[in-house]
From TrEMBL:
It is found in: Cell membrane. Pfam families: MFS_1 (PF07690). This is MFS transporter. Residues 199-230 are annotated as: Disordered. Residues 218-228 have a biased composition (Acidic residues).
Amino acid sequence: MSPVPAAPLWAGRTLALLGIILVACNLRSAVASLSPVLEMLERDIPLNATLVGALGMLPPLCYAVFGILTPLVTRRFGLEPVLIASLLALSIGLLGRGAAGDAVVLFGASALSFAAIGVGNVLLPPLVKRYFPDRVGLMTTVYATAMSLSTLVPPLVAVPVADAAGWRVSLGEWALLAVVSLVPWIVLAVRETSERRAAAAGAPAEPEAHAPGMADGAEPEELPEEPEPAGLRHALRSPVAWSLMVVFAVSGFTAYSGFAWMPQIVADIAGATPAEAGALLALFAGAGLPAGIIVPIVAARFGRVRLLIGIATACQLTGAAGLLAVPTTATWLWVFLLGSGPLLFPLSLVLINMRTRTHAGSVALSGFVQSIGYIIAAAGPMLTGGLHDLTGGWTGPLVMLGSACIASALAGLVISRPRYFEDDTGADAGGSLRSGRAGARALRRR
């Protein structure tokens, strides 16, 4: 595959750029806006501890289920129509949460919202590959940063809005963002339909200013022909898919476990006050923000995948070891290092595009990696809490969190090699590639 010439970021694809950023801003707001107002919500809709726990399990489970279904639907209807449908569903779900009168409606609307987000999770990497194949690293940084902001902002505004206008407005207001996000994608879809009709009628159509990966006068990306479209069945026998899934899963496992238990961990082993524990949790979450900005660019531009995985492994091991050995000394440093381990998350997102040749391959790989990865990540808080209850302390859970990165380091040995997901089709048991030489040369140039 010949390298795609870099074009100006805004040239001919402003709507796609805006659309991708807006979609990314929707992917965490539904989750992050609920817990801060849960106490207010329970005054009108009583929820026991089991129901609250089930609400907490809904996001990763929906992400997993719809990570599997999205590639199948996308192959039938296309990227943009499926994305538009998911944004419509998200708008309805968010409005439904705000209008819920009982637990059944609340759960149904929440499930619809999280299902729509699961579709968006899978589609964002292929959309970057479709519209920005020459700027994969930069665009992954852009939308990973937008996702981080969509995690940080809702908790800051949820309670003030709820105090001023009620929890229903606080939850339902995010539907406006989903509706606004529809605009660029509807315009792109209408434009593409008009061009297709003009071409079918034999009328000269204007050049596609929004064509994926093209600026004015740029050549389209050259893609090799595939013997068959890459799909989920292909992913099941792909070493690239399984290895990337492990890296993604370890990142999510560590992050979800830390979000759930870090305040209690530092309170018990380091004597942190509630205010200090909250600040350390914010530090744990914020450690991933600089990684989201830097990692995709380093991976795409310089190809230092093995180095990045090594850094993540070292950070996670050191952070866990510090909390085990000297928890009261430089607690902030150990928490920050443990929170830096999930830099594997933005690395996984950019590798979905770096390790695929085609849009179909990117959709299939994204769906496989995120569906199974989120199932494993969802088990993190439960396993961490269960191991704490079993052992009566935090040594076992911290050893588990620290050693989890060993699995990602081993998987990194596979995904750091220059090979494509599509090249695993027809690979023998040893994983030899039928067309690996050309792919290796292209990947080294990246």
